Amino acid sequence: MTDDTLLDRALIRLEEAASHLQIDQDVIEKLKYPRETTKTRLLIRMDDGSRKSFLAWRCRYDDTRGPTKGGIRFHPDSTIEEVETLAFWMTFKCAVMNLPYGGGKGAVRVDPHTLSKTELERLSRAYMQAFATTVGPDRDIPAPDVYTNAMIMGWMADEYNQITGSVSPAVITGKPIALGGSLGRTDATARGGFYLVRHLAQELGLSGSRTVAIQGFGNAGQYFAQLADEDGNKIVAVSDSTGAIHKPDGLDVKRLIEGKTAGRRVADMAAELGATVIPSDDLIAVDAELLVPAALEEMITADNAASIKARVVLELANGPVTSEADKILADKGVVVLPDILANAGGVTVSYFEWVQNRQGFYWDLEEIHARLKKMMEREGRAVWAISQDRSVSVRSAAYIHALGRLATAIEAHGTQPFFAG
Ligand code: GLU
Question: Which of 25, 94, 102, 203 is deepest in the core (most CB within 10 A)?
Fold first, then answer.
């Protein structure tokens, strides 16, 4: 057992990409560590009158290319390492997409399902009170992540406006439409991944209708299921944090989403959908051409990667495949479309939201979709071309693509030649 952290493991991808480029050591030195991570405790009043304290963080990993950008996660297992790693990934994600942002991330260690709605509101507002000087439309712009949503972003935006005595919708994205949210933000992560797969379908050997297995049935998983289903694909297996179901001739996605929205677990719906309950761990091994991890980090590891039958893995989650698993998959000829590209649709539409907030002029859904599609296809194509030209994995290509942009920006700020001269 090694004692390396999630961030150490994530940095392997940076070093790998750097080995393909003529990168100044200054660049690597800057990108190896988060710029700042603030840790605090949020003390809130519970409904029964007692007080409870929750650990919370906000990391601004790197702001060379612009204000830091990234979601806030509410999860009982959140740690500082996880927050910093997710912020590192955001730095590269924004660079892959050429968004004028650096990377950030935040979290509260809490299981939000154990809170009432009023407790959740007090916790969300307390987070914004604690980080009111960290965030800002030109400094650090949060958004939703695992177990946070538009309602929570709305509370946070309102809290920020009360603190600053202004109305600054651009401080946070993923807001309700009524408070300056963008059309098309809710399904943007899934939609971006969907556009990417469709655009590269031929190269990936995925032409025609395909079978899909989805691990994790939250925001990204549900919307991806819906988009893929409407496009004529078969969703043959899905899982949530409590179990998995399998139906080789395709699940009724509409009923599945209705059930989930009503608070039910996927495994409890198996009988009525004519599906079989399978162990959660077996989901990744079902017969499907496309496997979509849409849950948490490090779900596909050296222990289970060999069981994957899919031809393509689309990482809608952040960091679901470890670097050991990457090697096993590459040997098997499985193509992994990496998180920093595959799930970048979310932050891309967050960028559109920020732009609309700043200009005070709002776009229709058609325009959002057209712009998202164009950007996913443009950067997806560029990454694909790098992977072909250099005979590297799509992940390495995405890191090379992003690192090139980050290096140019870091060097443009730098004074290295002066000292070297
Ligand atoms: N939490 C999402 C991500 O990991 C979205 C971040 C954002 O919209 O800023 O990409």
Answer: 94
Atom of ligand 1 nearest to the CA of 343: 10
pTM score > 0.85 for this model?
A: yes
**Active-site residue numbers?**
105
Work out the average pLDDT over 9-24.
91
Ligand 1 contact, 317 CB (< 6 A) = no
Ligand 1 in reach of 145 Cβ (< 6 A):
yes
Q: Are 156 and 71 spatial neighbours (Cβ–Cβ below 8 Å)?
A: no
* Token code pair at residue 356: 């609309």
85 lines ligand 1 (CB under 6 A): no
Tell me the C-alpha distance between 419 and 331, whole Å: 44
Instruction: State how far the Cα of 290 lies from the Cα of 284, in Å rounded to an integer.
Output: 10
Domain boundary among 179, 211, 239: 179
Shared domain check, 145 and 203: no
Domains: count for the chain: 2
For residue 144, report the distance from its CA to the centre of ligand 1, in Å: 6
Place of tokens 């100044």: 24
Q: What CATH number does the domain containing 296 carry? A: 3.40.50.720
The verdict on the CB of residue 318 being under 6 Å from ligand 1 is yes
pLDDT one-digit tens code per residue, 366-384: 999 999 999 999 999 999 9
Shared-domain flag, residues 158 and 204: no
Assess whether the C-beta atom of 400 lies below 6 angstroms from ligand 1: no
* Span 377-396, average pLDDT: 97
Final residue of a structural domain among 179, 203, 236: 179
Domain contains 14: no
Identify the residue whose C-alpha is closest to ligand 1 atom 8: 347
Cα distance between residue 372 and residue 370, in whole Å: 6
Question: Considering the domain boundaries, does residue 2 fall inside one?
Answer: no
Provide the domain limits for residue 48.
36-179
**Strand order across the 335-337 sheet:** 276-278, 243-246, 234-240, 211-215, 290-293, 312-314, 335-337
What are the pLDDT digits (tens) for 112-163? 999 999 999 999 999 999 999 999 999 999 999 999 999 999 999 999 999 9
Asked if the structure places residue 17 within a domain, the reply is: no
Which residue has the least CA distance to atom 7 on ligand 1? 347
Nearest ligand 1 atom to alpha carbon 349: 8
Is the residue at 12 inside a domain?
Answer: no
Q: Which two tokens stand for residue 416?
A: 């290295």
